[in-house]
Amino acid sequence: MSILAEKHILLGVTGSIAAYKAADLASRLAQAGAQVDVILTSAGEKFVSPLTFQSVTGRRAYTDQDLWGNEAHILHVNFGKTADMLVIAPCTADTMAKLAHGIADNLLTVTALAADCPILIAPAMDGGMFDHPATRENLKTLQSRSVLVAGPATGRLASGISGVGRMIEPAEILGHIRMALGRSGKLAGKKIVVTAGGTQEALDPVRVIANHSSGKQGYALAQAAIDAGAEVCLVTAPTALIPPVGARVVHVTSAQEMLDALLNESGDALIMAAAAADFRPKQAAKEKMKKRDGIPQIQLEAAPDILKTVSGSKSGKRRFKVLAGFAAESRNLLENALEKLQSKGLDLIAANDISAKDAGFGAETNRITLLFAGGAKESLPLMSKTDAAEKIIEHVARLLE
Ligand code: PMT
User: Fold this and answer.
1) In 3D, which of 75, 46, 47 has the Cα closest to residue 60?
2) How many CB atoms lie within 10 A of CB 372?
3) pTM of whole model > 0.85?
4) Relative orientation angle of helices 107-114 and 72-82, to the nearest 10 degrees
5) Which is the closest atom of ligand 1 to the Cα of 255?
6) Distance 307 CA to ligand 1 centre (A)
7) Tens-digit pLDDT profile for residues 363-373
8) Is the CB of 257 inside a 6 Å radius of any atom of ligand 1?
9) Are 271 and 307 found together in one domain?
10) At which of 123, 149, 181 does a domain end?
11) Residue owning the nearest CA to atom 16 of ligand 1
Protein backbone atom coordinates (compact mmCIF):
# COMPACT_ATOMS: atom_id res chain seq x y z
CA MET A 1 0.00 0.00 0.00
CA SER A 2 2.54 2.58 -1.09
CA ILE A 3 -0.14 5.29 -0.91
CA LEU A 4 0.11 5.10 2.90
CA ALA A 5 3.86 4.55 3.20
CA GLU A 6 5.46 7.31 5.27
CA LYS A 7 2.19 9.24 5.49
CA HIS A 8 1.57 10.97 8.82
CA ILE A 9 -1.96 10.18 9.93
CA LEU A 10 -3.54 11.66 13.04
CA LEU A 11 -6.24 9.38 14.37
CA GLY A 12 -8.72 10.99 16.74
CA VAL A 13 -10.70 8.60 18.92
CA THR A 14 -13.80 9.88 20.71
CA GLY A 15 -16.22 8.37 23.21
CA SER A 16 -18.22 5.71 21.44
CA ILE A 17 -18.30 1.95 21.81
CA ALA A 18 -16.95 1.87 18.23
CA ALA A 19 -13.65 3.13 19.75
CA TYR A 20 -12.56 -0.51 20.05
CA LYS A 21 -12.63 -0.74 16.25
CA ALA A 22 -10.30 2.28 16.03
CA ALA A 23 -7.51 0.03 17.35
CA ASP A 24 -7.97 -2.17 14.27
CA LEU A 25 -7.90 0.91 12.03
CA ALA A 26 -4.72 2.17 13.72
CA SER A 27 -3.14 -1.25 13.26
CA ARG A 28 -4.08 -1.41 9.55
CA LEU A 29 -2.68 2.08 8.97
CA ALA A 30 0.57 1.24 10.76
CA GLN A 31 0.92 -2.05 8.87
CA ALA A 32 0.50 -0.13 5.61
CA GLY A 33 3.53 1.98 6.54
CA ALA A 34 1.82 5.09 7.91
CA GLN A 35 3.11 6.99 10.93
CA VAL A 36 0.04 7.00 13.17
CA ASP A 37 -0.37 9.44 16.05
CA VAL A 38 -3.49 8.74 18.08
CA ILE A 39 -5.28 11.43 20.10
CA LEU A 40 -7.93 10.18 22.51
CA THR A 41 -10.56 12.42 24.03
CA SER A 42 -11.26 11.80 27.73
CA ALA A 43 -14.48 9.99 26.74
CA GLY A 44 -12.54 7.93 24.16
CA GLU A 45 -10.11 6.91 26.93
CA LYS A 46 -13.02 5.44 28.90
CA PHE A 47 -13.56 2.88 26.10
CA VAL A 48 -9.97 2.08 25.04
CA SER A 49 -6.69 2.86 26.74
CA PRO A 50 -3.80 4.77 25.15
CA LEU A 51 -1.68 1.65 25.70
CA THR A 52 -3.84 -0.27 23.19
CA PHE A 53 -3.01 2.25 20.50
CA GLN A 54 0.64 2.50 21.49
CA SER A 55 0.89 -1.27 21.15
CA VAL A 56 -0.41 -1.31 17.58
CA THR A 57 1.23 1.87 16.27
CA GLY A 58 4.57 1.65 18.09
CA ARG A 59 4.18 5.35 18.95
CA ARG A 60 2.88 7.06 22.05
CA ALA A 61 -0.81 7.91 22.08
CA TYR A 62 -1.88 11.38 23.22
CA THR A 63 -4.59 12.35 25.68
CA ASP A 64 -5.96 15.57 27.18
CA GLN A 65 -3.21 15.41 29.78
CA ASP A 66 -0.80 16.32 26.96
CA LEU A 67 -2.77 19.51 26.37
CA TRP A 68 -1.35 20.83 29.63
CA GLY A 69 2.11 19.28 29.36
CA ASN A 70 5.41 20.99 28.50
CA GLU A 71 4.93 20.85 24.74
CA ALA A 72 1.28 21.89 25.00
CA HIS A 73 1.66 25.22 23.23
CA ILE A 74 3.07 23.63 20.09
CA LEU A 75 1.81 20.05 20.09
CA HIS A 76 -1.53 20.72 18.41
CA VAL A 77 -0.03 23.20 15.95
CA ASN A 78 2.74 20.76 15.01
CA PHE A 79 0.23 17.96 14.53
CA GLY A 80 -1.93 20.17 12.37
CA LYS A 81 1.01 21.23 10.19
CA THR A 82 2.82 17.92 9.75
CA ALA A 83 -0.10 15.53 9.31
CA ASP A 84 -1.20 14.38 5.86
CA MET A 85 -4.65 13.73 7.22
CA LEU A 86 -6.71 13.94 10.41
CA VAL A 87 -9.10 11.01 10.73
CA ILE A 88 -11.63 11.02 13.56
CA ALA A 89 -13.04 7.53 13.98
CA PRO A 90 -15.33 7.11 15.77
CA CYS A 91 -16.60 10.68 15.72
CA THR A 92 -19.42 11.29 18.21
CA ALA A 93 -22.27 13.80 17.80
CA ASP A 94 -20.57 15.88 20.51
CA THR A 95 -17.24 16.08 18.63
CA MET A 96 -19.07 16.78 15.37
CA ALA A 97 -20.85 19.69 17.06
CA LYS A 98 -17.55 21.02 18.43
CA LEU A 99 -15.89 20.81 15.01
CA ALA A 100 -18.83 22.53 13.33
CA HIS A 101 -18.75 25.41 15.82
CA GLY A 102 -15.01 25.77 16.19
CA ILE A 103 -15.03 24.73 19.83
CA ALA A 104 -11.52 23.72 20.88
CA ASP A 105 -11.71 22.46 24.44
CA ASN A 106 -9.59 19.31 24.24
CA LEU A 107 -6.41 18.20 22.45
CA LEU A 108 -8.32 16.64 19.55
CA THR A 109 -10.62 19.58 18.81
CA VAL A 110 -7.84 22.12 19.31
CA THR A 111 -5.72 20.10 16.83
CA ALA A 112 -8.62 19.97 14.36
CA LEU A 113 -8.96 23.75 14.55
CA ALA A 114 -5.25 24.23 13.91
CA ALA A 115 -5.03 21.62 11.12
CA ASP A 116 -4.51 22.54 7.46
CA CYS A 117 -4.61 18.91 6.31
CA PRO A 118 -7.77 17.19 5.05
CA ILE A 119 -10.11 15.98 7.81
CA LEU A 120 -12.17 12.79 7.56
CA ILE A 121 -14.76 11.81 10.14
CA ALA A 122 -16.48 8.46 10.63
CA PRO A 123 -19.60 9.29 12.67
CA ALA A 124 -20.85 6.86 15.33
CA MET A 125 -23.92 7.52 17.43
CA ASP A 126 -27.44 6.37 18.11
CA GLY A 127 -29.94 6.69 15.24
CA GLY A 128 -32.00 9.36 16.99
CA MET A 129 -28.90 11.45 17.62
CA PHE A 130 -27.80 11.16 13.99
CA ASP A 131 -31.28 12.16 12.79
CA HIS A 132 -31.50 15.13 15.17
CA PRO A 133 -31.75 18.45 13.28
CA ALA A 134 -28.75 19.77 15.25
CA THR A 135 -26.54 16.89 14.09
CA ARG A 136 -27.86 17.17 10.53
CA GLU A 137 -27.00 20.90 10.51
CA ASN A 138 -23.54 20.23 11.94
CA LEU A 139 -22.93 17.57 9.29
CA LYS A 140 -23.95 19.99 6.54
CA THR A 141 -21.67 22.69 7.96
CA LEU A 142 -18.72 20.30 8.09
CA GLN A 143 -19.33 19.04 4.53
CA SER A 144 -19.56 22.62 3.27
CA ARG A 145 -16.06 23.12 4.71
CA SER A 146 -14.79 20.06 2.79
CA VAL A 147 -14.65 17.75 5.79
CA LEU A 148 -14.95 14.23 4.38
CA VAL A 149 -17.64 12.08 5.93
CA ALA A 150 -17.39 8.27 5.80
CA GLY A 151 -20.62 6.59 6.91
CA PRO A 152 -22.40 6.02 9.17
CA ALA A 153 -23.88 2.65 8.26
CA THR A 154 -27.21 1.11 9.10
CA GLY A 155 -27.16 -1.71 11.61
CA ARG A 156 -27.50 -2.69 15.24
CA LEU A 157 -26.62 0.24 17.51
CA ALA A 158 -25.38 0.26 21.10
CA SER A 159 -28.95 0.95 22.26
CA GLY A 160 -29.97 -2.41 20.80
CA ILE A 161 -32.11 -0.69 18.20
CA SER A 162 -31.33 -0.95 14.50
CA GLY A 163 -30.83 2.29 12.60
CA VAL A 164 -28.39 4.66 10.91
CA GLY A 165 -25.48 5.59 13.15
CA ARG A 166 -23.11 2.63 13.18
CA MET A 167 -19.50 3.46 12.42
CA ILE A 168 -18.44 1.87 9.12
CA GLU A 169 -15.88 -0.93 9.38
CA PRO A 170 -12.13 -0.12 9.64
CA ALA A 171 -11.38 -1.67 6.21
CA GLU A 172 -13.91 0.67 4.64
CA ILE A 173 -12.56 3.71 6.52
CA LEU A 174 -9.11 2.75 5.23
CA GLY A 175 -10.54 2.78 1.69
CA HIS A 176 -11.88 6.32 2.24
CA ILE A 177 -8.49 7.43 3.58
CA ARG A 178 -6.73 6.00 0.50
CA MET A 179 -9.17 7.68 -1.84
CA ALA A 180 -8.69 11.03 -0.10
CA LEU A 181 -4.89 10.76 -0.06
CA GLY A 182 -4.84 9.82 -3.75
CA ARG A 183 -6.91 12.77 -4.94
CA SER A 184 -4.00 14.70 -6.42
CA GLY A 185 -2.22 11.62 -7.81
CA LYS A 186 -0.91 10.99 -11.33
CA LEU A 187 -4.33 9.94 -12.60
CA ALA A 188 -6.33 12.80 -11.07
CA GLY A 189 -9.05 13.81 -13.50
CA LYS A 190 -8.71 10.60 -15.52
CA LYS A 191 -11.28 7.84 -15.82
CA ILE A 192 -10.02 4.26 -15.83
CA VAL A 193 -12.18 1.22 -16.56
CA VAL A 194 -10.90 -2.08 -15.16
CA THR A 195 -12.34 -5.55 -15.72
CA ALA A 196 -11.83 -8.36 -13.21
CA GLY A 197 -12.73 -11.93 -12.40
CA GLY A 198 -13.66 -14.92 -14.50
CA THR A 199 -16.79 -14.83 -16.62
CA GLN A 200 -19.35 -17.62 -16.34
CA GLU A 201 -21.18 -19.09 -19.35
CA ALA A 202 -24.45 -20.83 -18.53
CA LEU A 203 -24.92 -24.49 -19.46
CA ASP A 204 -28.33 -24.63 -17.83
CA PRO A 205 -30.02 -22.70 -14.96
CA VAL A 206 -27.59 -24.17 -12.39
CA ARG A 207 -24.34 -25.01 -14.21
CA VAL A 208 -21.71 -22.79 -15.78
CA ILE A 209 -18.42 -22.97 -17.66
CA ALA A 210 -16.08 -20.87 -15.52
CA ASN A 211 -12.36 -20.42 -14.85
CA HIS A 212 -10.09 -20.01 -11.84
CA SER A 213 -9.76 -16.22 -11.85
CA SER A 214 -10.23 -14.88 -8.32
CA GLY A 215 -10.42 -11.24 -9.39
CA LYS A 216 -7.42 -10.33 -7.17
CA GLN A 217 -5.35 -8.82 -9.98
CA GLY A 218 -8.24 -6.79 -11.40
CA TYR A 219 -9.36 -5.52 -7.98
CA ALA A 220 -5.74 -4.58 -7.16
CA LEU A 221 -5.62 -2.58 -10.41
CA ALA A 222 -8.85 -0.78 -9.54
CA GLN A 223 -7.45 0.08 -6.08
CA ALA A 224 -4.11 1.24 -7.55
CA ALA A 225 -5.96 3.50 -10.01
CA ILE A 226 -8.01 4.99 -7.13
CA ASP A 227 -4.79 5.50 -5.14
CA ALA A 228 -3.46 7.42 -8.15
CA GLY A 229 -6.51 9.70 -8.09
CA ALA A 230 -8.51 8.20 -10.97
CA GLU A 231 -12.25 7.89 -11.25
CA VAL A 232 -12.64 4.12 -11.53
CA CYS A 233 -15.30 1.91 -13.02
CA LEU A 234 -14.82 -1.75 -12.12
CA VAL A 235 -16.63 -4.16 -14.43
CA THR A 236 -16.50 -7.40 -12.52
CA ALA A 237 -17.46 -11.00 -13.13
CA PRO A 238 -18.53 -12.89 -9.97
CA THR A 239 -15.81 -12.96 -7.27
CA ALA A 240 -15.71 -13.26 -3.48
CA LEU A 241 -13.87 -9.93 -3.16
CA ILE A 242 -15.08 -6.62 -1.74
CA PRO A 243 -14.67 -3.84 -4.33
CA PRO A 244 -12.36 -0.97 -3.41
CA VAL A 245 -14.00 2.08 -1.83
CA GLY A 246 -14.62 4.70 -4.49
CA ALA A 247 -15.02 2.36 -7.46
CA ARG A 248 -18.26 2.42 -9.41
CA VAL A 249 -19.02 -1.27 -9.77
CA VAL A 250 -20.82 -2.93 -12.67
CA HIS A 251 -21.59 -6.60 -12.04
CA VAL A 252 -21.64 -8.94 -15.04
CA THR A 253 -21.66 -12.69 -15.46
CA SER A 254 -20.89 -13.70 -19.05
CA ALA A 255 -18.40 -12.45 -21.65
CA GLN A 256 -21.32 -11.00 -23.63
CA GLU A 257 -22.49 -9.04 -20.58
CA MET A 258 -18.93 -7.80 -20.01
CA LEU A 259 -18.76 -6.61 -23.62
CA ASP A 260 -22.17 -4.92 -23.38
CA ALA A 261 -21.12 -3.17 -20.17
CA LEU A 262 -17.90 -1.91 -21.77
CA LEU A 263 -19.72 -0.64 -24.83
CA ASN A 264 -21.64 1.61 -22.41
CA GLU A 265 -18.45 3.00 -20.90
CA SER A 266 -15.80 5.42 -22.05
CA GLY A 267 -12.71 6.74 -20.35
CA ASP A 268 -9.01 7.40 -20.61
CA ALA A 269 -7.95 3.77 -20.30
CA LEU A 270 -9.42 0.28 -20.32
CA ILE A 271 -7.45 -2.40 -18.48
CA MET A 272 -8.77 -5.91 -19.20
CA ALA A 273 -7.53 -8.09 -16.33
CA ALA A 274 -10.60 -10.30 -16.49
CA ALA A 275 -10.37 -13.87 -17.68
CA ALA A 276 -13.24 -13.78 -20.15
CA ALA A 277 -14.46 -16.99 -21.76
CA ASP A 278 -13.22 -17.83 -25.25
CA PHE A 279 -15.98 -20.42 -25.74
CA ARG A 280 -19.55 -20.70 -24.55
CA PRO A 281 -22.36 -23.21 -25.04
CA LYS A 282 -24.18 -22.53 -28.29
CA GLN A 283 -27.45 -22.82 -26.43
CA ALA A 284 -27.96 -22.93 -22.68
CA ALA A 285 -30.61 -25.49 -21.67
CA LYS A 286 -33.76 -23.78 -20.38
CA GLU A 287 -34.36 -26.41 -17.72
CA LYS A 288 -31.86 -28.14 -15.45
CA MET A 289 -30.22 -31.02 -17.33
CA LYS A 290 -31.09 -34.32 -15.69
CA LYS A 291 -28.61 -37.08 -15.00
CA ARG A 292 -31.16 -39.68 -16.01
CA ASP A 293 -31.20 -38.24 -19.57
CA GLY A 294 -27.57 -39.32 -20.04
CA ILE A 295 -24.40 -37.33 -20.65
CA PRO A 296 -25.31 -34.15 -22.55
CA GLN A 297 -23.64 -33.33 -25.85
CA ILE A 298 -22.73 -29.68 -25.50
CA GLN A 299 -21.93 -27.70 -28.59
CA LEU A 300 -19.67 -24.72 -28.07
CA GLU A 301 -19.29 -21.51 -30.03
CA ALA A 302 -16.86 -18.60 -29.80
CA ALA A 303 -17.63 -16.02 -27.14
CA PRO A 304 -17.17 -12.43 -28.30
CA ASP A 305 -13.56 -11.21 -28.18
CA ILE A 306 -14.17 -8.21 -25.95
CA LEU A 307 -10.91 -6.35 -26.47
CA LYS A 308 -10.93 -6.91 -30.21
CA THR A 309 -14.50 -5.66 -30.42
CA VAL A 310 -13.76 -2.56 -28.33
CA SER A 311 -10.50 -1.72 -30.13
CA GLY A 312 -11.93 -2.59 -33.55
CA SER A 313 -15.23 -0.75 -33.22
CA LYS A 314 -15.24 2.69 -34.79
CA SER A 315 -15.86 4.42 -31.48
CA GLY A 316 -13.67 2.06 -29.38
CA LYS A 317 -10.34 3.78 -29.87
CA ARG A 318 -11.98 7.12 -29.37
CA ARG A 319 -13.68 6.02 -26.18
CA PHE A 320 -10.46 4.74 -24.56
CA LYS A 321 -7.16 6.48 -25.25
CA VAL A 322 -5.19 3.54 -23.85
CA LEU A 323 -6.11 -0.13 -24.14
CA ALA A 324 -4.28 -2.61 -21.91
CA GLY A 325 -4.74 -6.35 -21.74
CA PHE A 326 -3.30 -9.43 -20.08
CA ALA A 327 -2.13 -12.62 -21.72
CA ALA A 328 -2.30 -15.60 -19.39
CA GLU A 329 0.06 -18.15 -20.94
CA SER A 330 1.46 -21.48 -19.83
CA ARG A 331 3.89 -21.73 -22.80
CA ASN A 332 5.49 -19.52 -25.49
CA LEU A 333 4.70 -16.59 -23.22
CA LEU A 334 6.18 -13.69 -25.15
CA GLU A 335 5.28 -14.89 -28.68
CA ASN A 336 1.65 -15.46 -27.68
CA ALA A 337 1.45 -12.18 -25.77
CA LEU A 338 2.92 -10.24 -28.69
CA GLU A 339 0.42 -11.81 -31.06
CA LYS A 340 -2.44 -10.72 -28.70
CA LEU A 341 -0.99 -7.22 -28.32
CA GLN A 342 -1.04 -6.79 -32.09
CA SER A 343 -4.21 -8.65 -33.05
CA LYS A 344 -6.28 -6.96 -30.32
CA GLY A 345 -4.92 -3.49 -31.14
CA LEU A 346 -3.53 -2.84 -27.63
CA ASP A 347 -1.08 -0.25 -26.33
CA LEU A 348 0.19 -2.51 -23.57
CA ILE A 349 -0.10 -6.17 -22.62
CA ALA A 350 0.92 -7.87 -19.37
CA ALA A 351 2.30 -11.26 -20.38
CA ASN A 352 1.36 -13.37 -17.41
CA ASP A 353 3.42 -16.54 -16.91
CA ILE A 354 0.96 -18.96 -15.32
CA SER A 355 3.20 -22.03 -15.60
CA ALA A 356 4.21 -21.83 -11.92
CA LYS A 357 1.93 -22.12 -8.87
CA ASP A 358 3.02 -18.74 -7.47
CA ALA A 359 1.59 -16.73 -10.37
CA GLY A 360 -1.63 -16.31 -12.32
CA PHE A 361 -5.08 -17.57 -11.42
CA GLY A 362 -5.91 -17.36 -7.70
CA ALA A 363 -2.30 -16.75 -6.59
CA GLU A 364 -1.26 -13.81 -4.40
CA THR A 365 1.64 -13.00 -6.72
CA ASN A 366 2.22 -12.55 -10.44
CA ARG A 367 5.25 -12.83 -12.72
CA ILE A 368 4.66 -10.39 -15.54
CA THR A 369 6.47 -9.04 -18.59
CA LEU A 370 5.06 -5.84 -20.00
CA LEU A 371 5.07 -5.50 -23.78
CA PHE A 372 4.30 -2.16 -25.41
CA ALA A 373 2.92 -1.38 -28.87
CA GLY A 374 6.08 0.61 -29.63
CA GLY A 375 8.23 -2.52 -29.12
CA ALA A 376 9.49 -1.79 -25.59
CA LYS A 377 9.57 -4.59 -23.02
CA GLU A 378 9.90 -4.64 -19.22
CA SER A 379 10.24 -7.86 -17.23
CA LEU A 380 8.98 -7.62 -13.68
CA PRO A 381 10.14 -10.10 -11.03
CA LEU A 382 7.67 -12.18 -9.02
CA MET A 383 5.71 -9.64 -6.97
CA SER A 384 2.42 -9.22 -5.15
CA LYS A 385 -0.57 -8.47 -7.36
CA THR A 386 -0.80 -5.14 -5.49
CA ASP A 387 2.75 -4.20 -6.54
CA ALA A 388 2.14 -5.45 -10.09
CA ALA A 389 -0.99 -3.30 -10.24
CA GLU A 390 0.94 -0.23 -9.10
CA LYS A 391 3.56 -0.82 -11.83
CA ILE A 392 0.91 -1.22 -14.53
CA ILE A 393 -0.92 1.90 -13.35
CA GLU A 394 2.36 3.87 -13.46
CA HIS A 395 2.77 2.81 -17.12
CA VAL A 396 -0.84 3.62 -17.97
CA ALA A 397 -0.36 7.09 -16.42
CA ARG A 398 2.81 7.54 -18.51
CA LEU A 399 1.00 6.48 -21.70
CA LEU A 400 -1.71 9.04 -20.93
CA GLU A 401 0.76 11.89 -20.39
O1 PMT B 1 -8.08 -12.99 -11.12
P2 PMT B 1 -6.78 -13.54 -10.56
O3 PMT B 1 -6.98 -14.84 -9.81
O4 PMT B 1 -6.03 -12.51 -9.76
O5 PMT B 1 -5.86 -13.94 -11.78
C6 PMT B 1 -5.37 -12.95 -12.61
C7 PMT B 1 -5.48 -13.35 -14.06
C8 PMT B 1 -4.60 -14.55 -14.31
C9 PMT B 1 -6.92 -13.67 -14.45
C10 PMT B 1 -5.04 -12.08 -14.90
O11 PMT B 1 -3.86 -11.63 -14.35
C12 PMT B 1 -4.90 -12.41 -16.35
O13 PMT B 1 -3.90 -12.88 -16.83
N14 PMT B 1 -6.01 -12.11 -17.07
C15 PMT B 1 -6.19 -12.44 -18.46
C16 PMT B 1 -6.62 -13.87 -18.59
C17 PMT B 1 -7.00 -14.22 -20.00
O18 PMT B 1 -8.14 -14.41 -20.25
O19 PMT B 1 -6.03 -14.14 -20.85
P20 PMT B 1 -6.21 -14.46 -22.44
O21 PMT B 1 -4.84 -14.63 -22.89
O22 PMT B 1 -7.19 -15.55 -22.63
O23 PMT B 1 -6.83 -13.13 -23.02
C24 PMT B 1 -6.04 -12.06 -23.51
C25 PMT B 1 -6.74 -10.74 -23.26
O26 PMT B 1 -7.97 -10.73 -24.00
C27 PMT B 1 -7.09 -10.52 -21.82
O28 PMT B 1 -6.88 -9.16 -21.49
C29 PMT B 1 -8.57 -10.86 -21.73
O30 PMT B 1 -9.24 -10.08 -20.74
C31 PMT B 1 -9.06 -10.49 -23.12
N32 PMT B 1 -10.20 -11.31 -23.58
C33 PMT B 1 -10.22 -12.66 -23.43
C34 PMT B 1 -11.31 -13.39 -23.86
C35 PMT B 1 -12.35 -12.70 -24.50
N36 PMT B 1 -13.43 -13.35 -24.90
N37 PMT B 1 -12.28 -11.38 -24.68
C38 PMT B 1 -11.22 -10.67 -24.27
O39 PMT B 1 -11.15 -9.46 -24.44
Assistant:
1) 75
2) 16
3) yes
4) 50
5) 36
6) 10
7) 999 999 999 99
8) no
9) yes
10) 181
11) 275
pLDDT in tens, 41-56: 999 999 999 999 999 9
User: 22-32 burial, b if ≥16 CB within 10 A, otherwise e?
Assistant: bbebbbbbbeb
3-state DSSP assignment of residue 382? coil
* Domain span holding position 313: 191-287+294-400
Residue 396 and residue 264 share a domain: yes
Question: Contact at 8 Å (CB) between 54 and 196?
Answer: no
SS (H, E, C) 233-260: EEEECCCCCCCCCCCEEEECCCHHHHHH
Rounded CA Rg of the chain: 25
Catalytic choice (211, 336, 352, 366): 211
How far does residue 275's CA lie from ligand 1's centre (Å)?
Answer: 4
Give the pLDDT confidence of 113-145 residue by residue, as tens digits. Answer: 999 999 999 999 988 899 999 999 999 999 999
Same domain for 157 and 226, yes or no, is: no
- Of 181, 214, 237, the position where a domain reaches its end is 181
Whether residues 113 and 257 fall in one domain: no
Which residues touch 209 (CB under 8 Å, ≥6 apart)?
200, 201, 203, 277, 279, 280, 281
Which residue in 234, 225, 219, 218 sits closest to 274, CA to CA?
Answer: 218
Residues 165 and 228 in one domain: no
Residue 150 lies in a domain: yes
| Centroid of ligand 1 to alpha carbon of 288 (angstroms) | 29
Nearest-CA neighbor of 320 among 246, 209, 400, 386?
A: 400
Per-residue pLDDT tens over the stretch 241-274: 999 999 999 999 999 999 999 999 999 999 999 9
Q: What is the pLDDT of residue 70?
A: 65
pLDDT, tens digit (0-9, with 9 covering 90-100), for 275-294: 999 999 999 999 999 999 99
